[in-house]
Amino acid sequence: MNAIFLMLVGLGAMALGYFVYSKFVAEKIFRLDAGFRTPAHEFEDGVDYVPTNKFVLWGHHFTSVAGAAPIVGPAIAVIWGWVPAFLWVVFGTIFFAGVHDAGAIWASNRNKARSVGALTGDVVGKRARSIFMIVIFLVLLMVNAVFAVVIAGLLTKFQSSVVPVWGAIVVALIIGQLIYRKMIGLLMVSVVGVIALYALIWVGPSVPLALPEMFMGMTDKAQWIILLFVYAAIASLLPVWMLLQPRDYINGLQLFVGLGLLYGAVLLSAPDVVAPAFNDNVPEGTPSLLPLLFVTIACGAISGFHGLVSSGTTSKQLNKETDLRFVGYFGAIGEGCLALAAIIAATAGFATLADWQAVYSGFGQGGVAAFVQGGANILSNGLGFEIELSQTILTVMAVLFAGTTMDTGLRLQRYIFQEWGVIYKINWMQKAAPATLLAVGSCLLLAFGSGGDGSGGLLIWPLFGTTNQLLAGLTLLVITVMLARLGRPMFVTLIPLLFLLVMTVLALLIQLKGFYEQENWFLFALDLVVLGAAILVALECGATLNRLRSGKAEQAGSQP
Question: For residue 276, what pLDDT is reported?
Fold first, then answer.
């Protein structure tokens, strides 16, 4: 199988999904109204609520939800073969992720930009809200703590990426001023920003930077983690237009340039996919494809974290309701394109099947390293780039996305603490600075709780996929109930909701058995908590929809 076939079929199918299916969902299901006054206008404060150009907002949304996960998940899941990963990414993006992301923005937009967690209390019930808040907190804790570890590892391993990664922050700050203070046109700013980013990438290999191997008892990796959280804390308190929006926007453009280079290299080099279509010889210890495929590939098919971004920051910046089709659904399409590129790099970026098998010697192998290694080989063969430059381009791409996700994740975690302050009437917790300190403190406690290297967040990472998909199910539940109350068709969200609940429960049961056999009692207990939440969500889902159906039946029966 040639990689060009995968690229053309995958991109073609997702384009069809955007132009046809998303239009149907926007017009017939959500019934978007350009005249609806969005919360960005109603509560405009110049900090969190800022009416934003849809292209800039798309950049924020897309890069916030993308992160490293749509690279890591697909590049691990190809161990079962490229066909299952390819099908789940393509069809999951079209029928699951796009509807989920756009639906979460719509639900929040119609309810004063409240987060989907807080919204659950009104739409489903207070008990469901409590479950939702716990699951949200766990997902954000995992994302923030683990992405810091991932970024720190990449900065340590690929020192040529340090200058472009941190230089991108300076570029973003300048762009924010040019757009909102100097009122310079978006096209000019975009061109200058992309040129500046790639100039930094070109310079990076010439000035590799590294932190001291040990400083105050901390390894270089631990030092990077501390610096990343200091930066993320500052970024979460700044007005969104100053850093978050322009950083995400320019990173979005950078990604599409990077994807253009990678896909262009595929066309020119026409590499063969050396990985098997279905791998009948998986390494010992690899779990079953069903249901683990659907939680291993979360971002890139459907991800609960997207619902947090959609209802946490994106809905507060929506200029017109009709913009959410482009921002939400097309944002999911962008992530699907990244996941597709990860599959191609991890299956066609190796010379032989033996080379591929050497990387995929056990479950969990591959990931970002396989994407960078395989993608660099494709860039080098197709475009003639030097390997080090190719690796720098792809590493910077992965790090910048992980960084933007961490920025948004910490801001969202701050929102969660503030919402808890409102719910439980804790006045000091409702303020931004104390809530940010609580968010950073909880992440650092997890990261450094098991040792001084800062990798403690990896302890609960095995449960990220299942917890994240449970969160996606909860978000779809809220959207489904809203549609039911409005008397609109529910199948576009109900079918993905039921599918995710089944797969999540099955995956949790399989993981529970594995943790028991390993005598990993911490993860065993945490798995039980998440499993209990999944079961309660399923019960709440059935009860709520049944009440709505019964109420409508009684109403119909009472009519003359």
Answer: 93
